[in-house]
Amino acid sequence: MSASIHEPATDAIVIDPEIMGGEPVFRGTRVPVASLFEHLESGCSLDEFLDWFPTVTQQAAVEVLMEAHRRVVQS
Predict the structure, then answer these.
(1) Which of 13, 31, 36, 39 could cross-link 8 (Cys pair, CB 3.0–4.6 Å)?
(2) Domains in the chain and their CATH numbers?
């Protein structure tokens, strides 16, 4: 069964209407997942992103990137 918008495909993401209005965030933080992609698109490295958002673990960021890759490659 594929994950719905309310059931993230990875444990690194939380979607909760009580946290940031339901915007997908990294688990245990208030950092929107979209901010990772925005920073990478603007030319920042993953290490720079992690420096700017120390509450996001490298493991969580990599897990999100791997899930995005899986979804794009298998689409």
Answers:
(1) 13
(2) 13-73 (1.10.10.10)
